[in-house]
Amino acid sequence: MSDDHSLPSPRPGSYAVVTGASSGIGQAIALELGRRGHDLILVARTVAPMSFIAEQLPERDVKIRSVDLADAAARGEFLSELRKITVHMIVNSAGIATFGKFHQLPYDFERSQFELNATALFELTAAVLPGMVERREGGIVNVGSVAGNMVIPNNATYVGTKAMVNLYTESLHYELLGTGVKCTLLAPGPVREARKEEEKRTGIDRVTPNFIWTTYEDCAVDTLNALAANKVRVVPGPLSKLMNIFGLYVPHRLSAPLMGKLYGKMAAEVAEQQAQKSAQSRHNGSEGISS
């Protein structure tokens, strides 16, 4: 089955699992899978956006699971559930990123980032893969990043986890040839909404022409088409493709200082935004007390 150009077949009682389904790439892929006839198990911490997906797919069986995949205990309960049901496809999209010098960032949050980006993806894949191989049909999409090709100071934990995801997934792809199970790495660069409000635009948004970006919706279609063709890696959008080439072929000794400077600016921007939110929160709190 691995040499045809179709996704694993949807059927009653069998599910496509999508993590990180409350926003971004995960949400877009979940909607696209539902439109293609797949029943879904959606996983994220926030329920409301997943309920929105279910409302858009009234003919599909959509199960919603509020799980913090960075938490080992919560993740363990969900893994136990997965092992008892039929999963014909999994999209491991859940992930977070931080910016700044590793030794200056809160360790607990960095550890949670590692658990979510790397450990959870590893364990979820391991939970569903034996059943797929036994049935000789299945599909795995793991969301890595073109950043996983690079050395990026001020983004060390994210880059390290995505490097693991990239190589792990591509290695699995070749292991699974001939088993009927397809495995594709989604390695995006910057992806965003088709329309982004001005107040939410970052420095990168402002200096990058709109035509270079890819949208979440286009990314979802490209990804599922790549999985159907059992491509080892899909890199959607012009900017992502440029970053992919840059990361693979430019020596790290040349690229690292440039990327470190860029991500240092991003870290400063994120810190400023957080400080503004904290100040606004304190201001609102004081207003509440005085009233």
Task: Explain what this protein looks like in three dimensions.
This protein has 9 helices and 9 strands. A 7-stranded parallel β-sheet has the order 3-2-1-4-5-6-9, with helices on both faces. By secondary structure, the chain is α/β, with parallel strands linked by helices. Helices cover 52% and strands 14% of the residues. The chain has one domain: NAD(P)-binding Rossmann-like Domain (Rossmann fold, 3-Layer(aba) Sandwich), CATH 3.40.50. The longest helix is centred in the last third of the chain and has 39 residues, at 252-290. InterPro entries: NAD(P)-bd_dom_sf, SDR_fam, VLCFA-Steroid_DH. Keywords: Oxidoreductase.
Quick structural summary:
This protein has 291 residues and is an alpha/beta fold. Helices cover 52% and strands 14% of the residues. The strands form 2 sheets. It has a 7-stranded parallel sheet with strand order 3-2-1-4-5-6-9, with helices on both faces. The protein has a two-stranded parallel sheet with strand order 7-8.
